[in-house]
Design a protein that fits this description.
By secondary structure, the chain is mainly α. Helix content is about 55%, strand content about 5%. It is globular and about 35 Å long.
Length: about 120
Amino acid sequence: MAFVITISAAPVLAEGRVAVPVPDLSGMSDADAEKLIAALAQINVITSNCPEYRVSDGEWMLLTGTGDLLSNMLGLDPSAYDKTYFGPAFDTLDDPGACDRIGPKARPIIDDLIEMGGGTEPTD
């Protein structure tokens, strides 16, 4: 999948998927960016692996596009992004309570990203 991401609230497009706007995070501190990217990785893993917490394509693009945006802001290459954030997020699946512990956090995070200028509706 190819992503086109900028630091502003510009659309994110994945091949064969919808394009959605991502939030403007240009004023976010590195510490806050690291906290958010870790939470987004967990939410991505849980919503992709726990059927009761699935999200729409637009919501998924908002979550993953924002994670990719944060990765770029933090200067992470794809390998470091996966090792630092997705590896630990996938490890949470070893916990049988992870879906119910992390899954309910998806909706508030999606709502926060929308409030910050992101969206889940396709753009032109």
